[in-house]
């Protein structure tokens, strides 16, 4: 950040502020781990990145519950055919 004659020039690098760097790192880690990908639309600021991380975790939980229920139904179907 530079100061010129009692005016502040807001040209500081946004990603040099540490909390924002951690949010960005967490966003890229979660997006890569969930295999969502980056695509044409992506989060631009920290608030959007945190919202996308939240949505990706909700998606993981929903997918896990649905897959578990389907497998549970399949398992109970096989047991009923044997008995």
Describe the protein.
The chain has 83 residues and is mostly helical. The chain has one domain (14-82). Helices cover 64% and strands 7% of the residues. It contains 2 helices and 2 strands. A two-stranded antiparallel sheet has the order 1-2. Strand 1 (2-4) and strand 2 (7-9) form a beta hairpin. Helix 1 (18-33) packs parallel to helix 2 (46-82). The longest helix has 37 residues, at 46-82. The model has no long low-confidence stretch (mean pLDDT 77).
Briefly characterize the structure.
With 83 residues, the chain is mainly alpha-helical. It has two helices and two strands, in the order ββαα.
Rounded radius of gyration (Å): 22 Å
Number of helical segments? Answer: 2
Helix content class: 55-70%
Query: Which segments are poorly predicted (pLDDT under 50) over 5 or more consecutive residues?
Result: none
Distance linking N and C termini: 75 Å
Number of domains: 1
Shape: elongated
Question: Can you tag this structure with a few keywords?
Answer:
mainly alpha; 83 residues; 2 helices; elongated
Chain-wise SSE layout:
Layout: E1 2-4, E2 7-9, H1 18-33, H2 46-82
């Amino acid at each position: 950040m530079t100061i010129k004659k009692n005016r502040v020039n807001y040209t500081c690098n946004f990603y040099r502020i540490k909390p924002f760097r951690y949010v960005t790192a967490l966003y890229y880690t979660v997006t890569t781990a969930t295999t969502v990908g980056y695509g044409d639309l992506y989060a631009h600021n920290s608030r959007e990145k945190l919202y996308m991380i939240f949505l990706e975790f909700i998606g993981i939980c929903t997918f896990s519950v649905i897959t578990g229920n389907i497998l549970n139904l399949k398992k109970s179907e096989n047991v009923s055919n044997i008995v």
